[in-house]
């Protein structure tokens, strides 16, 4: 049974209307699932040849939120994101060195050692950003057979040809080439992305299979000789395998719209397979007002960034910007994000602290305000996943919660606020990773430990051992824990 034939496991309920910006139609459209109650999403994943950078974080967090929101609405989401571990050549061209092979030579490793090293590095970085793991994470090298089969279908239909052991897609045979990007074939300048190859019928034809030169380590047998797949063919083969024809959403960075996504559409549909129904693209980011680039010296890996910033602050900064907008990474942006995230997390922490001994109280007014902010949040997310407006709703919630905390708040009001933070800020935006079970255990242990610390400090103060009391407070500050003396007694926070 193929994914498209899989039965719906439970009868779907009524889902609210969600509108998303479809790159193909160049406008916001109402989302309608191919299969009621299910969403099939495919995201172009990384080429694992170096450490992940902040550009990867923008894309991964953006579509993680899309996935989370559909799940929040009650959809069963199959989220497929590939790993490119072969075939992606330098400058995204059809000639030159394989990116992974080049790095392997530099580090004196086997290509698959490089792929494994940077795959796990990428996964570690994504875990720190609280990005959920894909439902399926296929690798290009594990699907060579499917890629060869798709290439054979294209040759049989007259849309691809073999030349000197390589196979190319004939763009002239497919009039719809350019439908996604809006580029007309005749307007595309020849030879702008690569030197014209004599073995191609047209310089704009793109490689489906490449003949492996004698020095090329990564190679597989094929009907055309030993070689390796082109970059574009893997995504068509793997998305169709795991999501079926006419799947719902294909996502990726704006830089992949052409030629990668354009090629995916052409080769899939030319082979007779209806492809993605909606196309979503996230915009880029800038550092200090300039596009990130190694040549400009403003290239930042996530590991470097995490050395000075809480990964949740990085995620907060990313969701504070719409996925289709440019996100600015700068010192001022980081400071603002730190302050904003601290405001939300401090409010949540205080709500959970108060819950321990919360009295029964008439909290109708607070509960009504919490519900109003929930509705504002949901409305924003249904409008093309407008995370800046959704974050604004969380700040509105925080304003009202902090005002209520100035007086007496009952258990029902605190529980309503806590649920809103965890469901909207945590489950949807992914901002509160400590909401996970293991982190909750750690938090409970820290709460108990800090109660003992506060008791010890209070004992110092009662015995006029002020030097010891101040030393204890200072040591806690060194590890990011502060003690505040309030009219209700001392309390601690991160």
How does this model look, in words?
- The structure is a single chain.
- With 494 residues, the chain is α/β, with parallel strands linked by helices.
- The protein is built from 14 helices and 15 strands.
- Helix 10 packs antiparallel against helix 11.
- The longest helix has 26 residues.
- The N terminus is likely disordered.
State the end-to-end CA separation: 51 Å
Strand segment tally: 15
What does the radius of gyration come to?
Answer: 26 Å
By DSSP (H or I, 4+ residues per run), the number of helices equals 14
In short:
With about 500 residues, this protein is of the alpha/beta class. It is about 45% helix and about 15% strand.
Question: Which properties best describe this structure?
Answer:
alpha/beta; 15 strands; 494 residues; 14 helices; 44% helix; disordered N terminus; four-stranded parallel beta sheet
What are the SSEs and their pairings?
Layout lengths: L18 E4 L4 E4 L7 E6 L10 H19 L3 E6 L17 H9 L3 H18 L15 H13 L3 E4 L2 E4 L36 E6 L15 E3 L3 H11 L5 E5 L3 H14 L7 E5 L2 E3 L2 E2 L10 H5 L4 H9 L7 E3 L1 H25 L8 H19 L4 H19 L5 H18 L8 H26 L3 H13 L3 E5 L2 E5 L1
Parallel strand pairs: 3-4, 3-9, 9-10, 11-13
Antiparallel strand pairs: 1-2, 5-6, 6-7, 7-8, 11-12, 14-15
Helix pairs in contact: 2-3, 4-5, 5-6, 8-9, 9-11, 9-12, 10-11, 10-12, 11-12, 13-14
């Amino acid at each position: 049974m193929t994914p498209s034939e899989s039965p719906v496991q439970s009868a779907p309920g009524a889902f609210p209307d969600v509108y998303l910006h479809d790159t193909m139609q160049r406008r916001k459209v109402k989302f309608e699932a191919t299969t009621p109650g299910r969403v099939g999403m495919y995201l172009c994943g990384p080429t694992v040849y170096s450490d992940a950078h902040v550009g990867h974080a923008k894309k991964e967090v953006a579509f993680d939120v899309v996935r989370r929101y559909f799940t929040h609405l009650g959809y069963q989401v199959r989220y497929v994101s590939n790993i490119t571990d072969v075939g992606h050549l330098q400058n995204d061209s059809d000639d030159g060195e394989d990116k992974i092979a080049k790095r392997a030579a530099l580090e004196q490793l086997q290509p698959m050692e490089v792929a494994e090293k940077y795959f796990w590095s990428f996964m570690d970085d994504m875990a720190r950003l609280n990005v959920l793991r894909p439902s399926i994470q296929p690798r290009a090298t594990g699907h060579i057979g499917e890629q060869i089969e798709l290439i054979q279908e294209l040759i049989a239909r007259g849309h691809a040809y073999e030349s000197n052991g390589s196979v190319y897609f004939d763009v002239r045979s497919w009039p719809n080439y350019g439908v996604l990007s809006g580029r007309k074939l005749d307007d595309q300048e020849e030879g702008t992305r690569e030197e014209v190859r004599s073995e191609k019928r047209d310089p704009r034809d793109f490689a489906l299979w490449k003949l492996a030169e004698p020095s090329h380590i990564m190679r597989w047998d094929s009907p055309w000789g030993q070689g390796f797949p082109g970059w574009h063919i893997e995504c068509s083969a793997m998305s169709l395998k795991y999501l079926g024809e006419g799947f719902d959403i294909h996502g990726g960075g704006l830089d992949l719209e052409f030629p990668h996504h354009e090629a995916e559409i052409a080769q899939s549909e030319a082979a007779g397979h209806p492809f993605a129904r909606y196309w979503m693209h996230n915009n880029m980011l800038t550092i200090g007002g300039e596009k990130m680039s190694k040549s400009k010296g403003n290239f930042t890996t996530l590991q470097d960034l995490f050395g000075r910033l809480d990964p949740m602050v990085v995620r907060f900064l990313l969701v504070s910007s719409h996925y289709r907008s440019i996100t600015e990474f700068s010192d001022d942006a980081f400071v603002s994000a730190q302050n904003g995230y601290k405001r939300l997390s401090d409010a949540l922490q205080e709500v959970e602290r108060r819950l321990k001994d919360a009295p029964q109280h008439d909290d109708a007014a607070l509960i009504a305000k919490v519900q109003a902010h929930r509705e504002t949040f949901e409305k924003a997310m249904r409008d093309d996943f407008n995370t800046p407006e959704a974050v604004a709703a969380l700040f509105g919630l925080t304003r009202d919660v902090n005002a209520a905390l100035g007086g007496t708040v009952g258990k029902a009001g605190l529980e309503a606020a806590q649920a809103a933070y965890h469901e909207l800020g945590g489950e949807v935006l992914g901002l509160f990773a400590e909401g996970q079970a293991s982190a909750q255990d750690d938090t409970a242990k820290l709460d108990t430990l800090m109660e003992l610390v506060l008791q010890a400090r209070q004992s110092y103060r009662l015995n006029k051992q002020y030097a010891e009391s101040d030393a204890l407070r200072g040591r806690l500050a060194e590890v990011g824990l502060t003690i505040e003396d309030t009219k209700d007694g001392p309390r601690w926070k991160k």
